[in-house]
Design a protein that fits this description.
The structure holds 2 protein chains of 2 kinds. By secondary structure, chain A is mainly α. Chain A contains 23 helices and no strands. Chain B starts with a strand and ends with a strand. Classes of the chains: A mainly alpha, B alpha+beta.
């Protein structure tokens, strides 16, 4: 019957959907691998792991996530309030500066603070004449938490700023008019900001769970570092897969919990945002508050930049600088390739999701499973699957690019999907009623209108990929050094200053587009 | 040969019967309205004709050629149908000229990366002149007013000389003050283009004033097809009678000449009965004059500028609506005599 034969007219089952299915399948492979391998790990492996490793790792990893989330909430929301809703001197400039640490990967921060606060570091050098002979060790839980807090709080800061800027100031006045004190007013504002704060904490939490660089440099064992060790020195894939499955479950739990907290707390504001924004005078607290903000900025921006520039200047004459161009070129190559491939393969997936069928949503969820997979796990799956089924692929640039694409596909899909949602189905229908085939409607209507979203998706994936560390360490072809690798490898051996040029290049590279985005549309990068 | 012919066409979405089996034909050059409340299936009907939806059954013919039905399926781009969308769906990245050219041969050959040409020629020029916007050919959609966007959408749909133009709620996104003027303008453009046009609307005034014929839709079915006069004065059932305007539904006893009701004796527009039948009497089909010994009292009145609507309490207890020119203005509480005015009334089938 015709209806069945032409069902494609509505559901759009065609080459695009087939492509989306292939992409989703490849993107879902790591998750599938972890599940299958963990299930097949055997009672012995599991028994040993559950007895000896898992409880400790759970405590460390969850504890780290909890501490970092709480601290970044306080720090991020506090800074956001000070720069958005008070008369803090220079608050517009400070607001941009407070977001900038986002451009410093936490492992770069770890390199800097391991050197400054570590044994025989700069701080000890300053304190020694005063009789301090030993500082408490920077390595371990405290150091990892310290570094992660300093360099992930901008997630909370940006979302809280956007939330505060959009918050109707009349709520504050309404609470006061109804007889509530300033405390109640603050609590009301916190409730209204809950969705923004939850989103920020979720991003921080997911980051902490997936972080490898900062914790490894701070010599703290978490799931990611142990999985990396099982893959490297000890090479025990079943154990690595079993641990990975625990981490995946953990990540999914955080993701679902975070989304629920955010979704359950979504409120509707009656009356769109008012243009007038009330600013609270800080009075005598003005200078202490400014000092506090400046101290935070010194720790997150000033010190890192001074140290990195210093190291770079020191090593200017070295022959290492000669190799530097090669590392940068490798970084640009692998990130650029990954961004281009991700943007291309995300398109059919985004189209399948935008079409709104159940099949499309399933494909979309599968294609975005990389969101719940730390880089270590994607790399683990890539190694295992390629050595088993596609051995020529192992150790090639192609495999690294594939792993990057799987890991960063969600960002590309989300950017393109929101772009498609704005285009709307009527434009395509209009094109077809004017005699355009599906292909022509796509080429001449959808694609030109989607171009800004494609560019945005490319930039986001590129910026994330250029900082990626664990998958690069595991999957890179022999001799293929990128900037993150050249930061981590010497730092791992305690040669912190050698990491300088590569780290500075990474920071500059990530900061440039961030500054542009922040100055043009403040705070929309993460929204 | 009809421009559009539907025979038993139907469409369901899951358990919802959006369009029940429908027969319909629209002639060349005809301005045809599909009138119904939101959710009655009128937009689905339009999308079936355009080819954006595949019918579950029945056949659809455009210009005498089969488009859908049996093993036949012609995709929307080969149906020779123009469509004006509710939000106009103008291509935001193309100028007015390029929007209009999109459906023309020159537009088809145009590559996306080529610079847009500033020259307006041939069909694109004549159709933009038809809608009076040739001087805005190089503008972009966001630079136009709502009314201008609508005319560009119409020009774009007309440019490839389609068999029929479909318009989905064409006036709903315009300001009320603009609507009446644009309605007339669109009518003139469509008449000059000599294309058949089907437009969908929930606004009975729009359908009555614009269309040559109207199909009234209710819950997925076409309940009546006729000229505006037929739909208004001879509605087939109670629902249609009430949907297209204010009405008095009155029972009476029919005989071959007319029908006797409590308000008086009316001519029948078509034979009915014999026996008890229900008829639809429009408020303007009644007359009233002040009379202390009358049969009704003015309970309420609604002054509407050009006319006034009286709500009367009849001596039998019923409510009677009467519409008079607003020069016949009487205060609430006036005792009046209401009686049949001009025009025959129609028996209802339910």
């Amino acid at each position: 019957m015709s209806a069945a034969r032409h069902a494609g007219e509505r559901t759009g089952t065609g080459p695009a959907t087939a492509a989306a299915a292939v992409v989703a399948l490849v993107a879902g492979l790591p998750l599938l691998y972890v599940i299958v391998r963990a299930a097949g790990a055997g009672a012995d492996t599991w028994g040993v792991l559950l007895d000896r490793r898992v409880p400790g790792l759970l405590a460390t990893t969850l504890g780290l996530a909890a501490v970092v989330c709480s601290a970044t909430l306080v720090l991020g929301a506090g800074l956001a309030w000070l720069t958005v809703r008070t008369d803090l001197p220079g608050r517009r400039v400070l607001a941009v500066l407070c977001a900038l640490p986002l451009a410093i990967p936490p492992y770069v921060g770890a390199v800097i603070y391991a050197d400054l606060l570590g044994p025989r570091g700069a701080l000890q050098g300053v304190l020694e004449p005063l009789g301090v002979e030993r500082l408490p060790s920077i390595f371990g839980f405290d150091g990892a938490a310290f570094v992660l807090i300093l360099f992930t709080y901008p997630y909370v800061f940006l979302l809280a700023s956007a939330g505060l800027a959009g918050l109707n100031p009349h709520y504050d006045e309404a609470v006061r008019a109804l007889g509530g004190g300033p405390l109640l007013a603050a609590r009301t504002a916190a409730r209204l900001l809950l969705p923004a704060l939850a989103s920020g904490a979720l991003l921080v939490g997911l980051y902490v769970l997936s972080d490898f660089g900062a914790v490894s440099l701070m010599r703290l064992d978490t799931f990611t570092t142990v999985i990396y060790a099982e893959l490297g020195g000890r090479f025990d894939p079943p154990a690595a897969a079993a641990l990975s499955s625990v981490l995946v479950v953990l990540t999914l739990a955080v993701l679902v919990g975070g989304l629920r907290l955010r979704g359950g707390g979504r409120y509707t504001q009656t009356g769109a945002g008012y243009a007038r924004r009330t600013v609270r005078p800080l009075g005598r607290a003005k200078w202490p508050a400014l000092t506090l903000v400046v101290l935070v900025l010194a720790a997150t921006l000033g010190v890192p930049l001074v140290v990195l520039v210093g190291w770079t200047v020191e090593s200017l004459g070295d022959q290492a600088i000669g190799d530097f161009g090669g590392w940068a070129a490798n970084s640009l190559l692998v990130s650029g390739l990954s961004a281009s491939v991700a943007v291309a393969v995300a398109l059919p997936v985004a189209m399948a999701i935008a079409r709104g069928s159940r099949f499309g949503r399933v494909l979309g969820a599968l294609a975005q499973s990389g969101y719940a997979l730390p880089g270590v796990i994607v790399a683990l799956a890539a190694v295992a699957i390629s050595t088993r089924f596609f051995s020529p692929l192992y150790g090639t640039l192609a495999l690294l690019v594939i792993a990057f694409v799987v890991r960063f596909l969600p960002q590309a899909v989300q950017a393109e999907e929101s772009g498609l949602a704005q285009i709307g189905g009527n434009l395509v229908d209009a094109a077809r009623s004017l005699g355009a085939s599906r292909r022509r409607a796509f080429a001449q209507v959808v694609l030109p209108l989607l171009r800004p979203s494609l560019v945005a998706a490319w930039i986001v994936v590129f910026l994330t990929a250029v900082k990626e560390l664990p998958a690069t360490l595991i999957l890179r072809p022999i001799g293929f050094d990128t900037l993150p690798v050249r930061v981590w490898t010497p730092a791992r051996d305690g040669l912190y200053a050698e990491a300088g040029p590569a780290a500075l290049a990474l920071v500059v590279l990530s900061a440039l587009p961030l500054v542009v985005v922040l100055l043009s549309r403040r705070g929309t990068l993460l929204a | 040969m009809s421009a559009i012919e539907l025979a038993g066409a139907e469409k369901s979405f899951g358990a919802v019967h959006a369009v029940r089996p429908t027969d319909l034909s629209v002639e060349r050059g005809e301005l045809f309205a599909i009138l119904g409340p939101s959710g009655c299936g009128k937009t689905t009907m339009l999308r079936l004709i355009a080819g954006f939806e595949v019918p579950d059954g029945g056949t659809i013919r455009v210009g005498g050629a089969d488009m859908a039905g049996g093993s036949c399926w012609v995709p929307p781009e080969r149906r020779r149908i123009g469509m004006v969308f509710q939000d106009y769906a103008l291509f935001p990245h193309l100028s007015v000229a390029d929007n209009v050219r999109f459906g023309l041969r020159e537009g088809r050959l145009r590559m996306p990366w080529r610079r847009r040409s500033t020259e307006l020629t041939g069909a694109a020029r004549s159709v933009l002149e038809l809608v009076g916007l040739h001087h805005k050919a190089e503008r972009f959609p966001h630079e136009l007013s709502g009314g201008e966007r609508q005319r560009v959408a119409l020009a774009r749909a007309l440019a490839p000389e389609p068999e029929v133009v479909l318009l989905d709620e064409p006036f709903s996104s315009l300001d009320a003050s603009l609507r009446a003027g644009l309605r007339r303008e669109v009518e003139l453009i469509l008449r000059e283009a000599e294309t058949a046009a089907i437009f969908v609307t929930h606004d009975q005034e729009e359908a009555l004033s614009l269309a040559d014929r109207i199909a009234v839709m209710h819950e997925g079915s076409v309940v009546q097809v006729g000229t505006p006069q037929e739909i208004y004065y001879r509605p087939r059932d109670r629902w249609t009678a009430q949907f297209v305007g204010e009405v008095n539904l009155v029972q009476g006893v029919a005989d071959p000449v007319g029908i006797a009701t409590e308000i008086g004796f009316f001519d029948l527009a078509e034979p009915a009965g014999p026996g008890v039948v229900r008829v639809a009497i429009r408020p303007e089909q009644l007359e009233l004059r002040p009379d202390e010994a009358g049969n009704a009292t003015i309970d309420d009145r609604e002054f509407r500028g050009h006319d006034v609507l009286y709500r009367l309490r009849h001596e039998t207890g019923g409510v009677v609506l009467v519409q008079r020119p607003s020069v016949e203005l009487y205060p609430v509480g006036t005792r009046v005599r209401v009686r049949p005015g001009r025009g025959a009334v129609a028996p209802l089938r339910d």
